[in-house]
Backbone:
């Protein structure tokens, strides 16, 4: 891919990828930026290796999804980090449709759900993967993933009732 | 708000967000520098720098900064390349010829017909060594083994344990950034995610085995089971399954697997499936589930050549080994003072079937199925778990484990010698290790260019 094509690809897909991470990482701008950077470096290196793709949009989202799963695994190593969200930070992270209080509340609630349950909920419902696909990405059995999703839905409902946006 | 309403809101939770200008500028500059660094040519650097001048996301001030950064980076790269070229004449041979698995879009007919042998796929030209590291001795002593890791993206990462260093080798890539599944059969690596290929380690050539979604090992070590879902991905639909000989490419007729559960491993005459209702044993001839093990959510770890299956029921506080021939069952519990359950998916039998190595928390537990003894063979540092993989050397004596380090800067690997009862865990200064296989370094061939 030459420089012009990569620039066009970059401009077209950057808001999609940044929005993808921002919503799935508790609205944390620093995390979304870090993962966006990793995604595009990976994409660039793939192009430089001569990888050819028909639909670059879904392709780069598939890279982003793996980076997201990896991020959640790294989070397990770092243990728990601060899990709060400020609406002003959220809005300051970027511009686009991510500006409603209701959406911010949902993201904040999602962020309070235990890590593995949160990832399962995101992959299943936000990304729209099948349970088998979620299981494979997370390295779990289908039945364990199903159970994880059940617990995740309950946790999300409880968290949603508790969460408040500053 | 009801659970259903929340799920509906989750489904709508998407849409573009344009990051702020500072980040856009920073990222684009990074990508330009990366492009210049990898191209190693002044013309490429100039061209990309020129591209940047017209980039719509660039303010005038940022453009100036980018152009300056890019020009500086280009100058440094060109100067270094020139200096090295002068210093090292003639340039050394850096890579060995290694085959690249053909692009899936150009692959030919899969081996899905009984007794058919797939056509040999062309070997693509060009060397494909991606990177090398001079690790020296990884463990305290030289060992005659090489560990071949699925690095999760393009390549296989080979770590030699005789002081010869580590190598990242491209043995074939599919579009995108998908992981491989990696198994070793008689000197051939079978890699899958998307189409399934057999890679001859000695010759560096690849053969398309089948167009399927993924593969699992069969109980016969020279065979694999293909699992093919309609469409390119795993889905709720019933897959077709068939068995392929890795050496000859001969395949059985595909059969529809109409059962709940998810294919985990091959067993004599069929497949073992993880399911919510125990481990299901599916028979190829009849096309039916003919037996089950346990109740509730259960999953399979590994199967020996003589038909003993290691499995557990969630939450895997005990590992069960069942003989499929006579139904004899032996239970191996975790010790009470070690509450972490077994990591069932990663547990592996030694080739002779005597030992079962199973990650559990930070430990790799070793189960002697002959004596019933259970002990911790290796203990990894905190926070490495729960993603540990294990693999046995073909001598049934050397056991290796590695953490999940996809995308990480380091990887932690461990060795346990049954002969000496000695364990060593060490950190390599490069990441990208997922599941792996162990083979003699003398047979690592094209994996160690």
Residues:
């Amino acid at each position: 891919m030459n420089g012009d094509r990569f620039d066009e690809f970059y401009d077209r897909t950057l808001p999609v990828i940044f929005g993808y991470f921002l919503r799935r990482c508790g609205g944390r701008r620093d995390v979304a930026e870090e993962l966006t950077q990793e995604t595009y470096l990976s994409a660039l290196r793939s192009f430089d290796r001569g990888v050819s793709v028909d639909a670059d949009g879904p392709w780069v989202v598939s890279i982003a999804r793996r980076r997201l799963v990896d991020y959640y695994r790294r989070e397990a190593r770092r243990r728990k980090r601060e899990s709060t969200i400020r609406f002003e930070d959220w809005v300051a992270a970027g511009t686009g449709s991510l500006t409603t209080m209701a959406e911010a509340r949902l993201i904040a609630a999602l962020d309070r759900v235990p890590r593995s349950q949160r990832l399962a909920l995101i992959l299943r419902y936000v990304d729209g993967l099948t349970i088998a696909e979620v299981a494979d990405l997370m390295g779990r059995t289908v039945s364990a993933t199903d159970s994880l999703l059940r617990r995740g839905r309950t946790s999300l409902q409880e968290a949603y009732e508790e969460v408040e946006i500053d | 708000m009801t659970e259903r309403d929340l799920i509906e809101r989750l489904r709508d939770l998407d849409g573009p967000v344009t990051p702020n200008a500072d980040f856009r500028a920073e990222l684009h500059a990074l990508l330009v520098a990366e492009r210049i660094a990898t191209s190693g040519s002044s013309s490429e650097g100039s061209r990309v720098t020129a591209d940047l001048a017209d980039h719509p996301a660039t303010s005038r001030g940022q453009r100036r900064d980018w152009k300056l950064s890019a020009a500086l980076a280009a100058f440094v790269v060109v100067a270094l390349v020139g200096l090295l070229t002068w210093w090292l004449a003639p340039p050394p041979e850096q890579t060995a010829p290694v085959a690249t698995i053909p692009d899936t879009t150009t692959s030919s007919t899969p081996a899905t017909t009984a007794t058919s042998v797939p056509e040999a796929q062309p070997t693509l030209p060009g060397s494909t060594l991606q990177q090398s590291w001079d690790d020296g001795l990884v463990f305290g002593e030289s060992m005659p083994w090489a560990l071949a890791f699925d690095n999760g993206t393009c390549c296989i990462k080979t770590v030699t344990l005789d002081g010869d260093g580590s190598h990242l080798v491209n043995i074939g890539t599919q579009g995108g950034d998908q992981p491989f599944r990696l198994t070793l059969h008689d000197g051939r690596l079978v890699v899958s995610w998307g189409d399934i290929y057999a890679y001859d380690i000695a010759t560096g050539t690849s053969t398309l085995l089948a167009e399927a979604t993924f593969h699992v090992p069969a109980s016969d070590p020279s065979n694999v089971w293909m699992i093919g879902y309609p469409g390119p991905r795993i889905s709720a639909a019933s897959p077709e399954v068939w068995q392929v000989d890795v050496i000859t490419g001969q395949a059985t007729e595909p059969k529809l697997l109409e059962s709940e559960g998810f294919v985990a491993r091959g067993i004599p005459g069929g497949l073992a499936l993880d399911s919510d209702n125990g481990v299901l044993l599916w028979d190829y001839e009849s096309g039916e589930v003919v037996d089950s093990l346990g109740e509730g959510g259960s999953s399979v770890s590994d199967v020996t050549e003589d038909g003993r299956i290691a499995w557990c029921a969630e939450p895997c506080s005990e590992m069960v080994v069942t003989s499929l021939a006579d139904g004899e069952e032996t239970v191996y519990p975790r010790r009470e003072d070690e509450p972490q359950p077994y990591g069932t998916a990663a547990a592996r039998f030694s080739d002779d079937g005597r030992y079962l190595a199973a990650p559990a928390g930070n430990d790799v537990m070793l189960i002697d199925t002959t004596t019933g003894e259970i002990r911790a063979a290796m203990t990894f540092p905190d926070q490495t778990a729960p993603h540990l993989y294990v693999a046995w050397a073909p001598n049934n004596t050397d056991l290796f484990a590695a953490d999940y380090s996809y995308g990480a800067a380091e990887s932690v690997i461990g060795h346990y010698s049954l002969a000496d009862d000695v364990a060593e865990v060490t950190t390599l200064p490069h990441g990208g290790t997922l599941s792996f296989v162990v083979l003699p370094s003398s047979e690592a061939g094209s994996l160690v260019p």
